[in-house]
Amino acid sequence: MTGEETLRAALRRLLRRAPILAALGLVLAASWGFVAWMTLDMAHPLVRLAMPMDAAWSWATAVAVLAMWAGMMFAMMLPSAAPMILAFDTVERGDAGGGGAAPRTLAFAGGYLLVWVGYSALAAGAQWEFQASGLLTPMIVSRSDWLTGGLLALAGLYQWTPLKEACLRHCRTPLGFLMAEWRDGVQGALAMGLKHGLYCAGCCWALMLLLFVAGVMNPVWIVFLTVLVALEKWPVLPAWVARLFGAILIGAGAAILV
Q: Is 127 helix (H, G, I), strand (E, B) or coil?
């Protein structure tokens, strides 16, 4: 195959993927735009609503806090999930003879994101509980050495558990996951997305709790955790790197607690 033919084949593949790439790009841009707006315009009334001064939340406050967490989870987790979603799209297009895959791919991605909406609800509940106990500032930053050290140690210890290793292994091998879990139909794709989302949440839930340590509205901390999660799922990165970072977290948590 000549260079020109190779280029044309690559362009054809890109055009076939255009709908899912556009959808992922739109969600990712909207999520990061939402996060940037919240962190840069904290005086806005809607942003202030997501940063309650105490645990006396109204329904509007609860919805705003949930939206804040969901937008943040979408922005942080979608980059590391993109290889799995695109691998699903590639396999599906092969089965479909090169077309008609977008609805199932979108269902797969939707199932994945739905898991993180559920996690966001749990995180919002944890935020409310921490506020009720006086452990968070209005900026959603830990004001307790016990909470800070405990979360760091928890996240570090979890990096060494077999459950973390098993979930990370599924996240790092897209084709292996798809071959083992493949189901037909849109509902099957949704179920596969939910299952992948559960593996991803099982891998990253403790790291996401570290948002309470340096601040849920801290853009540098948000980007750092996003990069860390993406690196962990990079197939060529040695598995011991996750444990090394876990050891660092355990040490930091122990130092604060002691």
A: helix
